[in-house]
Amino acid sequence: MKKLVLTGAAGRLGSYLREPLTQLCDELVSTDIADDIGTLYAGESYMSGDLASMDDMMRVLDGADMVVHMGAYADEGPFEKLLGPNFVGAYNIWEASHRLGLKRVIYGSSIHAVGMHPKSDFIDTNVAHRPDTFYGLAKCFAEDLGSLYWDKHGLESVHMRILSCAQVTSPRALGSWLSYDDLIQLVTRCIDSPTVGFSVVYGVSDNDRAPVDNSQVNFLGYRPKDNAEQFAADILANAEPANPQDVGDMCHGGPFASVALGNSGMATMDIVDDTKKT
Fold first, then answer.
1. Does a structural domain hold residue 97?
2. pTM
3. Which of 16, 66, 210, 237 has the most neighbouring CB atoms within 10 Å?
4. Is residue 277 assigned to a domain?
5. Could you give the number of structural domains in the chain?
């Protein structure tokens, strides 16, 4: 592949994807709204751009073969705050990709697109949308965009419904954890699979307690290696019992399922900022 674009390159997940993605293409263009992202890897360049600007996305995506779209406002918030980066930004990515003739969009979707499904349901990739927040609603919108642009324009896309790609700090994460190594493998398979059409895949490691089913997308070749069970004894020894009256404990979306619309879900979670530094 000649040129690959990574949006959200200044984010925590983006920081772990930048170096591996340089190995898959002649030129990696990393982009975000930040002024810079530190030292660049060999084969990487940086272009600042606003997802909500079609002109910026046309400039950034020009000449690319594929885009790994990880950029977004990465939390629940008022609808107006998410409208530009998450809703309009997704449209701009797909429309610019169509106009410029890209082959594929690899999208960082989320479990929050289906977060209100009960955790007792072992859900597969064909389950109906059931967002838990405006943030989750934006993920539903982008997934439907991907379906529409595949049907109308033949633009391929893979939508990675990431569960929780962060250090394991809670009982929920024993099932939902996606390690950084497995994230890299997942994105790589989304890029190098010969054909994907419109596909949805759960971003989750090979956890004993994983609450989702990827069997419908075995053709992607994603075979996670890591298992959060290694953390179970320590996590469970210090955890409060689950509350069956709390939808945050009982639904796939976890804390996002229980917060009021427009209120931060991340503020209720213990997320370790281990962003990779260059």
1. yes
2. 0.97
3. 66
4. no
5. 1
